[in-house]
Design a protein that fits this description.
Blueprint (H helix, E strand, L loop, with lengths): L1 E3 L8 E3 L5 H11 L6 H5 L6 H11 L2 H6 L1 H7 L5 H7 L1 E2 L1 E3 L2 E2 L7 H26 L7 H32 L10 E4 L4 H24 L6 H31 L16 H25 L9
Parallel strand pairs: 3-6
Antiparallel strand pairs: 1-2, 4-5
Length: about 300
């Protein structure tokens, strides 16, 4: 343990040396807010120890927030490109009856409804036997598992898209964007199921983490941080798509996101997202390993 001394008139703050260098630097920097001339203290212009500790607890969440953005970018594809893929495929479930491509998103909700009870009633008790933790696994471990599953969902999505493109080529449909590719839309179900399973771990874990790891007075800030991950992730997804579209059409080549999906390369995009997610998961694990929980019961 490292003891950071302030001045004789202030309470000392204890910071674990297990924290990352950035967190230690931030703690030292914020401790300076407790130092002020006597006239400042008389006019109540100096921060209290409680206010500084609250600021530290929020700032310590920032590395986790940043390293979860790749998951949010992947999350943005569930209701966009996944649906666009499905619209080009055979959606017939009965003669004269086609299902809307967007209806496959219900598999995400169904997976969540099924697996949340399984997680609470089966997975947690089993994990508790091995880890001796009341929650089975920590919140950060739960988030990391979901991020890993989202990488698998991108791999599956890329493989399915490669098969769809090959089917379109085999049937001579590359230049017929309005034609239905003779490949069942049910091929997309596994990636939706994996997306729902990833949400069971990461989305629920993020909500618990950001709500639990802020002071009681800042619970709304914690929830705002959780929600902002998906807002910023959607923005980053749009920015990434625009940048790739410009880059892939610069030399006169067909864009990865051409309106004719049979000539586009969504599979390349999914592979790219999978690669980005792998890198960000590695960085996330670094910060998660050094994170010190505010409450001992959640560790």
């Amino acid at each position: 343990m490292e003891l950071l001394s302030m001045s004789p008139t202030f309470t000392c703050t204890v910071i674990s040396t297990k924290e990352t260098p950035m967190i230690l630097f931030t703690a030292r920097f914020l401790n300076k807010a407790l130092l002020a001339p006597d006239d400042f203290k008389e006019n109540r212009k100096v921060c209290t120890v409680a206010e500084v500790e609250e600021a530290k607890s929020v700032l310590r969440l920032f590395p986790i927030w940043v390293t979860c953005l790749a998951y949010a970018v992947v999350f943005a594809q569930y209701s966009t490109f996944f649906t666009k893929q499905g619209a080009t495929m055979d959606r017939t479930i009965a003669p004269g009856l086609d299902i809307p491509a967007a209806s496959l998103q219900t598999f995400i909700s169904i997976t969540i409804v099924i697996f949340v009870p399984i997680y609470d009633r089966i997975f947690v008790p089993i994990a508790r036997v091995f880890t001796r933790k009341p929650s089975g696994i920590t919140m950060l471990q739960r988030i990391g598992i979901g991020m890993f599953i989202s990488i698998i969902s991108m791999v599956v999505a890329a493989l399915v898209e490669m098969k769809r493109l090959k089917t379109a080529k085999d049937y001579g449909l590359l230049d017929m964007p309005s034609a239905t590719v003779p490949m069942s839309i049910w091929w997309l179900v596994p990636q939706y199921l994996l997306a729902g399973l990833a949400d069971v771990f990461t989305m629920v874990g993020l909500q618990e983490f950001f709500y639990d790891q802020v002071p009681n007075e800042l619970k709304s800030i914690g929830l705002a941080l959780y929600l902002s991950i998906f807002g910023v992730g959607s923005f980053l997804s749009s920015f990434l798509i625009s940048a790739i579209d410009d880059a892939t059409t610069w030399a006169g080549e067909t864009s990865w996101f051409s309106s004719n999906l049979n000539r586009a390369h969504l599979d390349y995009f999914y592979w790219l997202l999978g690669g980005i997610s792998v890198v960000e998961l590695a960085i996330y694990l670094y910060f998660a390993k050094s994170y010190i929980y505010n409450r001992a019961g959640t560790a």
